[in-house]
């Protein structure tokens, strides 16, 4: 089997309450990621991240150590923050053996110039969220928040998550999806015709005006009996061929 040039995942929302999803992630790292040249984690790997001082939490420590094992195997591991884990910092990066990237990030893999991002910044119709995002991404806000005791931060985050679930239930899918104008602007500014992102939980390949936009799936294996599990990744081989894969590794298109 040819070693992939790169693998991409996002939106696993890892948490101790979802053990099957966590097990699927650990299996992916062992059986797939360790055999790639590079692994890109494109945001919302964790359900939330309260700060790098939460690395001592047993669940966080286990997931971080598993990523570190991939890095120690010689794989280049890269991280782009999501809307749930944007407080990941240098402490996590060191522990996981990962390189933190700002977004959008442009890279060339096997001859393909690709722009990478989480995707939330392009959901410009969700005005309330965009205002919130602008606030919490400010260094001053983050310094003030991270100065709070860890338990207090977790309590605040829990409240924000509950409020977000309520608000999202009242929003249309169109509002919560990326907007064409924002996507077109990223393509133009980054001089790329290929994009990979997550966030929307609407996996697909969009072909518009000569551009290709790959949307990563979210992962959810802790479902009720009879419900389908979700998950998968995108791969690029050494010849620049991009493929989408299900949780079993099979190509889905």
From TrEMBL:
<feature type="binding site">
    <location>
        <position position="13"/>
    </location>
    <ligand>
        <name>Mn(2+) 1</name>
    </ligand>
</feature>
<feature type="binding site">
    <location>
        <position position="164"/>
    </location>
    <ligand>
        <name>substrate</name>
    </ligand>
</feature>
<feature type="binding site">
    <location>
        <position position="118"/>
    </location>
    <ligand>
        <name>Mn(2+) 2</name>
    </ligand>
</feature>
<keyword id="KW-0378">Hydrolase</keyword>
<feature type="domain" description="Calcineurin-like phosphoesterase">
    <location>
        <begin position="7"/>
        <end position="203"/>
    </location>
</feature>
<comment type="similarity">
    <text>Belongs to the LpxH family.</text>
</comment>
<keyword id="KW-0479">Metal-binding</keyword>
<keyword id="KW-0444">Lipid biosynthesis</keyword>
<feature type="binding site">
    <location>
        <position position="201"/>
    </location>
    <ligand>
        <name>Mn(2+) 1</name>
    </ligand>
</feature>
<keyword id="KW-0441">Lipid A biosynthesis</keyword>
<feature type="binding site">
    <location>
        <position position="83"/>
    </location>
    <ligand>
        <name>Mn(2+) 2</name>
    </ligand>
</feature>
<dbReference type="Pfam" id="PF00149">
    <property type="entry name" value="Metallophos"/>
</dbReference>
<dbReference type="InterPro" id="IPR043461">
    <property type="entry name" value="LpxH-like"/>
</dbReference>
<feature type="binding site">
    <location>
        <position position="171"/>
    </location>
    <ligand>
        <name>substrate</name>
    </ligand>
</feature>
<keyword id="KW-1003">Cell membrane</keyword>
<comment type="pathway">
    <text>Glycolipid biosynthesis; lipid IV(A) biosynthesis; lipid IV(A) from (3R)-3-hydroxytetradecanoyl-[acyl-carrier-protein] and UDP-N-acetyl-alpha-D-glucosamine: step 4/6.</text>
</comment>
<feature type="binding site">
    <location>
        <position position="199"/>
    </location>
    <ligand>
        <name>substrate</name>
    </ligand>
</feature>
<dbReference type="GO" id="GO:0008758">
    <property type="term" value="F:UDP-2,3-diacylglucosamine hydrolase activity"/>
</dbReference>
<dbReference type="InterPro" id="IPR029052">
    <property type="entry name" value="Metallo-depent_PP-like"/>
</dbReference>
<feature type="binding site">
    <location>
        <position position="126"/>
    </location>
    <ligand>
        <name>substrate</name>
    </ligand>
</feature>
<feature type="binding site">
    <location>
        <position position="44"/>
    </location>
    <ligand>
        <name>Mn(2+) 2</name>
    </ligand>
</feature>
<dbReference type="GO" id="GO:0030145">
    <property type="term" value="F:manganese ion binding"/>
</dbReference>
<feature type="binding site">
    <location>
        <position position="11"/>
    </location>
    <ligand>
        <name>Mn(2+) 1</name>
    </ligand>
</feature>
<feature type="binding site">
    <location>
        <begin position="83"/>
        <end position="84"/>
    </location>
    <ligand>
        <name>substrate</name>
    </ligand>
</feature>
<dbReference type="GO" id="GO:0019897">
    <property type="term" value="C:extrinsic component of plasma membrane"/>
</dbReference>
<protein>
    <recommendedName>
        <fullName>UDP-2,3-diacylglucosamine hydrolase</fullName>
        <ecNumber>3.6.1.54</ecNumber>
    </recommendedName>
</protein>
<keyword id="KW-0472">Membrane</keyword>
<keyword id="KW-0997">Cell inner membrane</keyword>
<dbReference type="GO" id="GO:0005737">
    <property type="term" value="C:cytoplasm"/>
</dbReference>
<dbReference type="InterPro" id="IPR010138">
    <property type="entry name" value="UDP-diacylglucosamine_Hdrlase"/>
</dbReference>
<keyword id="KW-0443">Lipid metabolism</keyword>
<feature type="binding site">
    <location>
        <position position="44"/>
    </location>
    <ligand>
        <name>Mn(2+) 1</name>
    </ligand>
</feature>
<dbReference type="GO" id="GO:0009245">
    <property type="term" value="P:lipid A biosynthetic process"/>
</dbReference>
<dbReference type="InterPro" id="IPR004843">
    <property type="entry name" value="Calcineurin-like_PHP"/>
</dbReference>
<feature type="binding site">
    <location>
        <position position="199"/>
    </location>
    <ligand>
        <name>Mn(2+) 2</name>
    </ligand>
</feature>
<keyword id="KW-0464">Manganese</keyword>
<feature type="binding site">
    <location>
        <position position="168"/>
    </location>
    <ligand>
        <name>substrate</name>
    </ligand>
</feature>
<comment type="function">
    <text>Hydrolyzes the pyrophosphate bond of UDP-2,3-diacylglucosamine to yield 2,3-diacylglucosamine 1-phosphate (lipid X) and UMP by catalyzing the attack of water at the alpha-P atom. Involved in the biosynthesis of lipid A, a phosphorylated glycolipid that anchors the lipopolysaccharide to the outer membrane of the cell.</text>
</comment>
């Amino acid at each position: 089997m040819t070693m992939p040039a790169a693998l991409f995942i996002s939106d696993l929302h890892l948490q101790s309450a979802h053990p099957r999803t966590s097990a699927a992630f650990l299996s992916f790292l062992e059986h797939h990621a360790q055999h790639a040249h590079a692994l890109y984690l494109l945001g919302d790997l964790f359900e939330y991240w309260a700060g790098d001082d939460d690395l001592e939490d047993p669940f966080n420590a286990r997931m971080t150590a598993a990523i570190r094992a991939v890095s120690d195997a010689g794989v280049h591991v890269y991280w782009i923050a999501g809307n749930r884990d944007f407080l990941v910092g240098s402490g996590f990066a060191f522990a996981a053996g990962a390189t933190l990237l700002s977004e959008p990030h442009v890279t060339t893999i096997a001859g393909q110039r690709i722009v990478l991002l989480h995707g939330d910044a392009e959901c410009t119709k969700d005005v309330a969220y965009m205002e919130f995002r602008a606030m919490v991404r400010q260094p001053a806000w983050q310094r003030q928040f991270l100065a709070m005791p860890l338990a207090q931060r977790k309590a605040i985050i829990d409240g924000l998550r509950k409020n977000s679930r309520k608000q999202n239930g009242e929003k249309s899918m169109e509002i919560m999806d990326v907007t064409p104008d924002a996507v077109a602007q990223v393509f133009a500014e980054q001089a790329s015709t290929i994009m990979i992102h997550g966030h929307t939980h609407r996996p697909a390949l969009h072909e518009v005006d000569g551009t290709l936009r790959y949307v990563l799936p979210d992962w959810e294996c802790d479902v009720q009996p009879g419900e389908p599990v979700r998950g998968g990744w995108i791969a690029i081989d050494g010849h620049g061929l991009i493929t989408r894969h299900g949780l079993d590794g099979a190509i889905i298109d």
